[in-house]
Design goal:
The complex is a heterodimer of chains A (414) and B (279).
Chain A (H helix, E strand, L loop, with lengths): L16 E2 L2 E5 L5 H15 L2 H15 L5 E3 L1 H10 L9 E5 L10 H15 L3 E6 L3 H13 L2 E7 H6 L1 H9 L3 E5 L6 H14 L4 E3 L10 H9 L1 H14 L5 E5 L4 H7 L9 E9 L10 H4 L1 E5 L1 E6 L24 H9 L3 E6 H15 L5 H13 L8 E5 L8 H12 L1
Parallel strand pairs in A: 4-14, 5-6, 5-8, 6-7, 9-10, 9-14, 10-13
Antiparallel strand pairs in A: 1-2, 2-12, 3-4, 11-12
Helix pairs in contact in A: 2-4, 3-14, 4-5, 4-9, 5-7, 9-11, 10-11, 14-15
Chain B lengths: L3 H12 L3 E7 L5 H14 L3 E5 L10 H12 L4 H14 L5 E5 L1 H7 L1 H11 L3 E4 L11 H7 L2 E2 L1 E3 L8 H5 L6 E4 L12 H12 L6 E4 L5 H8 L4 E4 L1 H10 L10 H18 L7
Parallel strand pairs in B: 1-2, 1-9, 2-3, 3-4, 4-5, 6-7, 7-8, 8-9
Classes of the chains: A alpha/beta (414), B alpha/beta (279).
């Protein structure tokens, strides 16, 4: 039996470990940088001016707080489908991260890291991106603060996320299409790491999710925790109590961690993470590292990974470029082993159906990433009583996905 | 306890020259060809042999070694076959040190204890695992040292005097000085800067210092061999190997010779170096 900790919120330890996960598995060339970053972040956290300045930008530039919205028609719709349960059907709230400047939660983290880069005197910012939302957020803040920006993006993702590529270019960033490996997010991360190894002294690597070598998983989490902190206050104001459940999609898992972390020690709150099941877990063509992977070491940390029997990393498959990654943040891996978060998955079909339903019922076109979380809301909400308060992290907007969804629907007609 | 690596560097010191350390990816372009190359390396002039363990996501390697790893994986290379290749080489050569180089995940998945046991039986002398810095020594470095396998660490231009003792602690066999900040095969090292760096490292350790990353020609090898105890060549060998392949990426009758010719050339460079009396 796993021994449960007194608190789920104290990790990582000083070496960056969440249980057996996390760590600093990087080439020696990068170690001085990683240590420098850790020291700079520790100093920044202790400096009230850093937080104060960040709060100012979050309010006036990002547009925080993002609303907590009662999704009334979706709630009604799912109550009608709750057949058999007379008073079934949870009350569904959306945490509207898609209303942030740049259209996703990514900007919360990028702001924190770019302000750190400025403190450290780094003028050249590199980033990896999958769906392009992290790339757009990085390009945006580099424009605002006058920094050079280079975004690595898998060639496959450049194809399927053209609107974001264009946005990044207009914002003044250089987008480098990565042709190696599977040409998606993991390969973009490899190339960004290679760039960082080559340009160690002047370059800041702005990682977009709660993964990578320590201190990134903890640092990115800290920047994203504003999502959960606001949700607590907003739910208190709206309903006078805590929510009963939280649900969010997980690729690397930064939007999920940001929502979950402030609630981890509230044992009454059920927490669900939804991975991308692609064509279905049993087909092998998916991106669900918890459901279909096992612990291994990649990109600076130990975590659940998709791989073959020989430890070679497998390609992930998902209609959502933002979830198309064969790993997951190490803190999620630990929370999975502790049993604190329940991990589910949703297929491409289910995500697209939820994308359509949410658009029609709520007038909100979600990104394909949170559409995976919405897909599980469709069957979780009807099982809950009417007074159950369920919060979905609507982590991004779907404008970037219109072409992907159209192509997907066309291919289904054939 | 002395190892093959210790004995080889001691013997070369007696000879008054630096070691030529050659890197080849096991299984590139196929198992049999890479075995034939490895078997031919000592005669061509290689003093130590580094064998790449292919990995899908080699984050510190440039395009040449990335492609070599993918060719090997496409041809069916596995960790079991890599160890088998060492065993077959060792059957005909009991003196040339073999160092396995790669990334941690394939070892972790194979199982650290089983990997070390099988590697020792196969005749492996040392390990270089790129993504295991001293901060993660408990993973593989300490178990390897306990088992009698050298754990060779990379020192880089970013490894300052404050960091060097951390890097050198638990390092054995030799120190691999990465002459550039960057990925493998990227740029030519500056011989002057390299000699200063080697001198700096030697102030901290009695271990031999081999220099690599970006060494391509006999002349570069000669210049580095004047100060360093070893010269590592990898991407240049991979490049001539690749150039010898047919359009389908298969080995040709020229493949083994293409590699050994360059090794012979580099060996002449190393042997032509006028050693600066270090130590």
């Amino acid at each position: 039996m796993t021994v449960q900790p007194n608190s789920y919120r104290t990790g990582p330890d000083e070496r960056g470990h969440f249980g057996i996960y996390g760590g600093r598995f990087v080439a020696e060339t990068l170690m001085p940088n990683i240590l420098e970053l850790e020291a700079a972040y520790t100093a920044a956290k202790a400096d009230p001016n850093y937080q104060k300045e960040m709060d100012g930008h979050l309010a006036t530039y990002v547009g925080r707080p993002s609303p907590l919205y009662f999704a009334e028609r979706l709630t009604q719709h799912l109550r009608q489908t709750a057949s058999g349960l007379s008073d079934g059907g949870a009350k569904i709230y959306f945490k509207r991260e898609e209303l942030n400047h740049t259209g996703a939660h990514k900007v919360n983290n990028v702001l924190g890291q770019i302000m750190l880069a400025l403190r450290m005197g780094k003028k050249r910012i590199i980033a990896e991106t999958g769906a392009g939302m992290h790339g757009v957020a990085t390009a945006t803040l580099c424009a605002k603060f006058g920094l050079d920006c280079i975004v690595y993006m898998g060639a496959v993702d450049v194809e399927r996320q053209q609107p974001n590529v264009l946005r990044m270019k207009i914002l003044g960033a250089e987008v480098r299409a990565v042709e190696s490996g599977s040409k998606t997010l993991k390969d973009a991360m490899n190339e960004a790491l290679r760039d960082w190894v080559t340009n160690v002294s002047d370059t800041f690597y702005c990682i977009g999710t709660v993964a990578g070598p320590h201190p990134y998983p903890a640092m990115v989490r800290d920047f994203q925790c504003i999502i959960g902190r606001e949700t607590r206050e907003q739910m208190q104001a709206a309903e006078g109590r805590l929510p009963d459940s939280l649900i969010a999609c997980i690729g690397g898992g930064s939007n999920a961690m940001g929502l979950f972390h402030p609630f981890l020690d509230d044992r009454s709150v059920e927490i669900y993470g939804v991975e991308a099941a692609g064509h279905g877990i049993t087909t092998g063509l998916h991106a669900a590292s918890i459901a279909g992977g096992r612990p291994g070491v990649l990109h600076g940390n130990r975590t659940y990974l998709l791989m073959d029997a020989d430890g070679q990393i497998a390609e992930a498959h998902s209609i959502s470029a933002g979830l198309d990654y064969p790993g997951i943040g190490p803190e999620h891996a630990w929370l999975k082993d502790m049993g604190r978060v329940e991990f589910l998955s949703a297929t491409d079909d289910e995500a697209v159906a939820a994308f359509q339903l949410c658009s029609k019922l709520e007038g909100i076109i979600p990104a394909l990433e949170p559409a995976h979380a919405l897909a599980r809301v469709m069957d979780l909400a009807p099982q809950k009583p009417k007074d159950h308060l369920m919060v979905v992290n609507l982590s991004g907007r779907g404008d970037k996905d219109l072409a992907s969804v159209q192509a997907f629907l066309e291919s289904k007609k054939r | 306890m002395t190892t093959r690596i210790d004995r080889r560097f001691a013997a070369l010191k007696q000879e008054g020259r630096a070691a030529l350390v050659t890197f080849i990816m096991t299984g590139d372009p196929d198992y049999d060809t890479s075995l034939a190359i490895v078997k031919a390396l000592p005669k061509a002039g290689a003093d130590l042999i580094e064998l790449g363990m292919p990995f899908t996501d080699p984050m510190a390697d440039g395009p040449a070694i990335q492609a070599a790893g993918l060719r090997a994986l496409a041809a069916g290379q596995t960790m079991i076959k890599t160890l088998k290749l060492v065993r077959e080489f060792r059957a005909g050569d009991s003196d040339t040190p073999i160092v396995l180089m790669g990334y941690y995940n394939p070892i972790y998945i194979y199982g650290v204890d089983k990997f070390l046991a099988d590697a020792i039986v196969a005749g492996v002398d040392g390990l270089i695992v790129v993504d295991l810095p001293p901060e993660e020594d408990g993973e593989l470095c300490l178990p390897a040292l306990k088992a009698g396998v050298n754990f060779i660490r990379l020192a880089t231009p970013t490894t300052d005097d404050k960091r060097l003792p951390t890097v050198l602690n638990n390092t054995s066999g030799f120190v691999y000085y990465v002459s550039i900040t960057g990925i493998t095969g990227a740029a030519a090292p500056d011989a002057g800067k390299v000699s200063a760096a080697v001198a700096r490292i030697k102030r901290h350790t009695k271990l031999p210092v081999a220099v690599g990353f970006g060494v391509r020609t006999a002349e570069q090898a000669r210049a580095i061999a004047e100060n360093a105890d070893g010269v590592v060549v990898g991407s240049a060998l991979i490049d001539v190997l690749r150039a010898s392949l047919d359009k389908a990426g298969k080995a040709t009758p020229e493949t083994v010779k293409a590699v050994t010719d360059l090794v012979a050339d580099l060996a002449q460079g190393v042997r032509a170096a006028k050693r600066v009396a270090a130590e």
